[in-house]
Amino acid sequence: MTLALEILAFAIMATVALGIYRIERGPTGADRMLAAMLFGTSGVALTLVLAEIAGLSSLRDMALVFALLGALTSVSFVKRAWGAER
């Protein structure tokens, strides 16, 4: 089971690498923001996988904080992007 979780952690880190590529090549700010949101989602997923591997419940709490910060970041981006259109 631990090997499967380690492979999953590696796959999540690979999605972060793809996100870095999208941030560099993204034609618009929205593409870059979606890649940054991918970092947040991947960070939560990776933290939860590492919590399961290490058996630390405190990492689950940290994943919850990451999820809340990601939601706040998304809301602030949308407010800023729609505010610029008006």
Protein architecture, described:
The chain is mostly helical and 86 residues long. The chain is built from 3 helices and no strands. It has helices spanning 2-25, 29-54, 57-85. Helix 1 (2-25) packs antiparallel against helix 2 (29-54) and helix 2 runs antiparallel to helix 3. The longest helix is centred in the last third of the chain and has 29 residues, at 57-85. 9% of the residues are buried.
What can be said about the biggest beta sheet?
none
Following the backbone from N to C, one meets helices and strands in this order, namely: HHH
**What is the overall shape?**
flat
Cα radius of gyration in angstroms: 15 Å
Tell me the total number of β-strands: 0
- Give the N-terminus to C-terminus distance in angstroms: 52 Å
Structural class: mainly alpha
Write the layout of secondary structure elements.
Blueprint: H1 2-25, H2 29-54, H3 57-85
Helix pairs in contact: 1-2, 2-3
